[in-house]
Amino acid sequence: MSHGFDLDGRLEQREAKDLRRHLEVAESVSARTRFADDPKGGPAEFGQEAVVFASNNYLGLADDGRVQCAAELGARTVGTGAGASRLVTGDTRVHRGLERDLAACKGTERALVFSSGYAANIGTIDALAPDVVFSDELNHASIIDGCRVGASETVVYDHCESDDLRAKMERRAAGADEDERWLVVTDSVFSMDGDVAPLSAICDVADEFGAWLMVDEAHATGLFGEGGGGLVQREGLSDRVDVQLGTLSKALASQGGYVAGDEALVEYLLNAARSFVFSTGLSPPSAAAAREALRVARETDRAAALWDTVATLRDGLEAMGYEVLGETQILPVVVGDRGDALELADRLRDHGVVAPAIRPPTVPEGTARIRVAPTATHTAEDIAQCLDAFRTAGEEVGVL
Ligand SMILES: *Cc1c(COP(=O)(O)O)cnc(C)c1O
Questions:
Q1: Partner of 230 at 20 to 30 A CA spacing, among 187, 257, 290, 378?
Q2: Residues having CB within 6 Å of any atom of ligand 1
Q3: Is a pLDDT exceeding 70 seen at residue 393?
Q4: CA-CA distance, 273 to 119, in Å (whole number)?
Q5: pTM (2 decimals)?
Q6: Separation of alpha carbons 35 and 276, rounded Å
């Protein structure tokens, strides 16, 4: 008899399905860095320097001196860890300052920070305890998991299709209890397609049915709208979106997640969101770093350099004959065949460019792609190296 778990067997099954993943050590999080393939954790032998087009550190602030100093100051003046849940003794002035700034940036009464965006999604959906969630089919895994944990029922609507959302809400409304609590949830920027949700149309549909709307701005905060307030703010929808949520770990170069909304929402979540109540407060250096990154994003036009790079890369790749999806800082370069995508990513790597192949089942069959994500600190030389690599590697693999 065995009641064990045979993890080696499970890993082999993943290997056979081409789904086995491996860790790789990066020397730093800079736009140019070196990597070591050393899963056993011995002394890492770093390889040649490569240019990274695979990070969500979109504004390049994770190795910015101002943000590093803020993190250090947070650690020195407040401490390296919060030491307890915010509800016990882990609530500090760095947390409050960050939350005030986030609320101002988002145009909401208040904000609340969690230990990650993942925890924010799970805790918020679970605490709201919706009877039905209407969720975009390409929403992030943390939203899907939030629905699994907290929703009585989840209805998935076609990606970015507000008409399909309306049709599904109409169908579900037939015979439904008037008091049911309905939540519509969408990412604002989708990370695998680099496209944008039709937020205004989704707001209209949610309003028609009296449902609440929650928007995850993980890939938009710091980048879009006045002072990096995100797409909700740019579209003038701050008053119509009940829950604005996102992460501090992408453009804001730190760690943690946030929810922004009205007084009642924040006061309720700090009482009822289990991932907030039963988890140690965000570490003070993380809170201080995120606050400084938000300040830099708001007070300097940091995103302008990123948008220039995005335009140069998109134009260059399209001129070579590549199909590039989306309309944001995420550039999905479609290759089609999964084998070709993997080989192209390997060849790009040989030419010193790191950009991952994204394959089915993450994306639909026949749309395997290379996901190119530039950073505001990429230089003209980095961009030229990326384009040269795509031309040479594309010809080597035969996809051009
Ligand atoms: C990355 C991401 C998250 C998770 O945020 P973390 O802070 O990394 O846990 C949540 N939602 C979306 C849409 C994301 O892209």
A1: 378
A2: 116-118, 121, 140, 142, 187, 191, 216, 218-219, 247, 249, 257
A3: yes
A4: 9
A5: 0.97
A6: 35
